[in-house]
Design a protein that fits this description.
Number of domains: 3
Number of helices: 23
Radius of gyration: 26 Å
Strand content: 5-15%
Distance between the termini: 75 Å
Structural class: mainly alpha
Length: about 575
């Protein structure tokens, strides 16, 4: 294992690195942002909502719009779990574009595109433009970022601010003029403050862990305690503390218990079991699955970082520390929701971009790193060819019953949509199939002699696959599972001023699309109780069917939705004050 050292251009065994400067860098950065934004807008941002978590939290946007700026509420009895910067941003988008899917998703889309632009600018300015381009492609086509850009919640916004803060801190530590160093530290302080206003003290903790690990690895740990660097973190904390002070004054002890004690400490230490409690290795398989096809190149990346004989660019060492710090931190947490490691994807994308540029410029070792890289490329080509062949076979011959019996119901829906698109030869399917087939052939033909074309084919596979999955398959599934068509039915039947209660777990998409507030109640009774004497209720079909007939004597079914999931239709019912003959029937 060789010692990690900064890259000396004079020791390069390949072409010299040429960072981009000045006006060219500005133009290239804007182009990276616009390309990322266009690609993310191609992923059907107007697709209907279903049950995603961010839709359940959209009540906080309504709360902001109604004037609760300091401490919004998801529901009348449920305070927001993190600071409200995302919901402030979403409220502005709603003011500008109306209450619709694109407005709620817009802050996440812009944040994801800006994250790609920051990563490109940093790598193009310090290493070379090719590394930045490949990093953007890898980041855009990672399942985590493309999914986060479609979710109306704070994770993409946090990733943007943390990425910008970490890059500013790296530039400040790199030296240079004191004026530029001060500007970078000021930018880092502002971004860390905004990150803290997005998802609590992670906005300060994550950049701090990255910088601490990097300085430790480079033997410069004393620099962590430089007054200017410490002042940047203090300034970020001071910016966020303005809101925390106001929220504490308004929310009191309940705010402290919910946002500080539970959401931070309890979730991290698992003093209280929650839905995201997983073993320490949980994020490993998620990283591999969520970063395909790029995760197949991780062995080659590891070999290039640790087994190579040449010096490494300093930014590559920094990106490695960046990834390890964030991935390691969340792996030690007892609470491991899958989206937590999103801030670890910018550095792993940067490392992937560097690896691909090294292969294109023939700077990888002939046997070790290059062999692993080419093996991964061959696996991608074979997997792509197999996927296309299997899809066509299912479209022609049908899906065997034993295959369907072993699949989860959601996977069966995905497969049905894919086969239907293939049989109908939909334009998106044809585009996907043609690009994947041509790219698989290109990889096999050009891998050894023209690595640039082979790498470009891998990039085309990732882009086309993400576009097809997020821009066609997922929206088609959402259109079949959303309760959006049922919301106007509820609004038209229930008279104005009457409350509607969900019996049990509510469907967040129905609450989003309905014009009225829909609350929830755990139990239903013919006698008014905790439901404020409401007359109108919504049931899942399976829960409604489990109610004994004598307890349904006071229920009149008014409308039902289509079947949207394994729970069946949703039933809008009226509770009658007196049992009527025929009650419970339409």
């Amino acid at each position: 294992m060789h010692e990690l050292t900064a890259k000396d251009p004079g020791t390069s065994s390949g072409p010299m690195r040429r960072p981009v400067r000045g006006a060219r860098l500005a133009v290239a950065s804007i182009a990276a942002f616009l390309f990322s934004l266009a690609f993310l807008f191609a992923l059907a941002p107007g697709a209907p909502f279903t049950k995603e978590l961010g839709v359940c939290e959209s009540g906080a946007v309504r709360s902001v719009l109604s004037g609760h700026l300091v401490l919004p509420y998801y529901q009348p009895d449920r305070m927001v779990q993190v600071p409200p910067l995302y919901w402030w941003s979403a409220a502005l988008a709603v003011r500008a574009f109306g209450w619709n899917e694109i407005a709620l998703r817009l802050p996440s889309i812009l944040a994801a595109a800006a994250t790609c632009a920051v990563v490109f600018t940093w790598l193009a300015a310090t290493v070379e433009a090719g590394v930045g381009i490949w990093a953007v492609v890898a980041l855009l086509t990672s399942h985590y970022l493309s999914d986060a850009a479609r979710q109306p919640r704070m994770d993409a916004l946090l990733t943007m601010f943390v990425t910008g803060a970490v890059v500013c801190l790296e530039r400040a530590l790199a030296g240079g003029e004191s004026r530029r160093r001060g500007a970078f530290l000021t930018g880092a302080a502002l971004l860390m403050g905004l990150a803290t206003l997005t998802k609590s003290f992670l906005g300060l903790l994550l950049p701090g862990l990255v910088i601490a690990l990097y300085l430790l690895v480079r033997g410069r740990l004393r620099e962590l305690f430089r007054p200017a660097l410490m002042a940047a973190f203090i300034a970020g904390l001071a910016l966020a503390s303005v809101w925390y002070g106001a929220a504490l004054a308004q929310g009191g002890a309940a705010f402290f218990r919910w946002q500080i004690a539970y959401s931070l400490w309890v979730r991290f230490t698992s003093a209280h079991k929650g839905p995201c409690e997983h073993p320490f290795y949980y994020f490993g398989p998620r990283l591999v699955g969520g970063f395909l096809p790029w995760s197949l190149y991780l062995p080659a990346l590891g070999a290039a970082l640790w087994l190579g004989r040449r010096a490494l660019p300093e930014q590559v060492i920094f990106a490695a520390c960046w990834f390890v710090a964030i991935f390691g931190f969340f792996s030690t947490s007892a609470g491991k929701c899958v989206v937590y490691i999103l801030p670890a994807f910018p550095p792993i994308a940067a490392l992937t971009g560097w690896l691909f540029e090294e292969r294109i410029m023939c700077r990888l070792g002939r046997r070790g790193e290059r062999g692993l890289f080419d093996l991964a490329s061959g696996v991608v080509a074979l997997a792509v060819a197999a996927a296309i062949g299997a899809t066509l076979a299912l479209a022609i011959g049908g899906t065997p019953a034993w295959v369907l019996a072993r699949m989860h119901h959601t996977d069966r829906h995905f497969l049905a949509i894919l086969v239907a698109m293939a049989r109908a030869a939909s334009p998106m399917f044809v585009l996907w199939a043609v690009v994947w087939t041509a790219a698989a052939v290109a990889v096999g033909v050009t891998l050894r002699r023209r690595p640039m074309f082979a790498c470009a084919a891998i990039g085309a596979i990732a882009l086309a696959g993400t576009l097809f999955w997020c821009g066609a398959i997922n929206p088609a599934l959402a259109r079949g599972q959303t309760l959006k068509p049922f919301a106007p039915v509820v609004d038209s039947i229930v008279p104005p001023g009457n409350r509607v209660y969900y019996v049990g777990q509510p469907d967040c998409d129905l609450a989003f699309y309905a014009r009225r507030e829909i609350r929830s109640v755990r139990r239903f009774s013919c006698q008014p109780g905790s439901d404020d004497g409401a007359q109108y209720f919504i049931f899942w079909h399976d829960r409604f069917s489990s109610i004994p007939a004598h307890r349904r004597a006071c229920i009149k079914v008014l409308a039902e939705s289509r079947q949207v999931d394994s729970h069946g239709q949703r039933l809008l019912v009226e509770r009658l004050l007196r049992a009527e003959s025929g009650a419970g029937k339409k």
